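Shapes recur. One chain:

:::
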Amino acid sequence: MTRVREIVVVAKGGPVEVRERIAAAPAAGSALIEVEASGVAFADVHMLHGTYPAQPKFPFTPGYELVGKVRQVGEGVPAQLVGRRVAALTVTGGWRSFAEVPAKSLVPVPEEIAGPVAAAVVLNGITAYQLAHQVAKISAGQTVLVHGASGGVGSLLVQLALNAGARVLGTASAAKHPAVRELGAEPIDYRGDVVARVRELAPGGVDVVFDHLGAGSYARSWNLLARNGIVVGYGSASTYDRPGNRFLPYLPLLGRVLGYRLRGLLGAANGRRASFYGIRPDMKARATLVAVFELVRSGQLEVPIAEQLPLVEAGAALEKMISGRGVGKIVLIP
């Protein structure tokens, strides 16, 4: 028998409980993964508060991503998969010591990459890579502004933009400015007048803004764009605890995007664009993760880890995520 330890969010806002049960044999097409590490994401915080667009029903086990070894496979899954090191974008269910995952969702993990590092780059790495190379399509000579440059996604965006030959400005608290400089970006204190500082550093505007803060920030980001620039919204970190309909934080962005397109038709947008990104756990995401793992394995991408905590301290990990005190990703170890 395989005993599973798992984290369960009982109701909206908590509590967060540690539970144990016996694992069933994996279903057809699935594999049982012994989890090495799983990440803590702002999506988990949104789900805790019931504000995630694809909100799971309570009670549920969080965990958007995991890394581990295949221990058992269900019918229709090749037996040679047993013992392989894999990663998966699970959306929920990753905060377990053993997790059942569809075999088609698994991505091989290079042995050179440690479990916590691999887990830290699944969701964040896919997100950052797709934002940089598929949405914004950063090119050499551009100036890029990354909000939250010391965070899990932000720190990877900084590196990917620099690798593409761009100049990078990054917002962060003053205490995190040394870490932002070490990444290679020019830090801006997010508690100060960000707009004035960006205009001082880039008088002609910036070519790309990556904004994870939510609808209230998108208009300011738009106003910082140079001609033909793009602002990419990819989250709503400032609205995780906002009451009411969980889709409301995203509606103002939709209105602005439509408005910008209309202005573009009228010639008032100067080629500026707005886009919103949401990750999809599909084949394209899995192919992206293969590319990200190769960047990590080859040393082209460093993965900052803010802290590693035992799985049983998941509640504390969520609080640390909300506080934003660390640099990089928080990882849970079963």
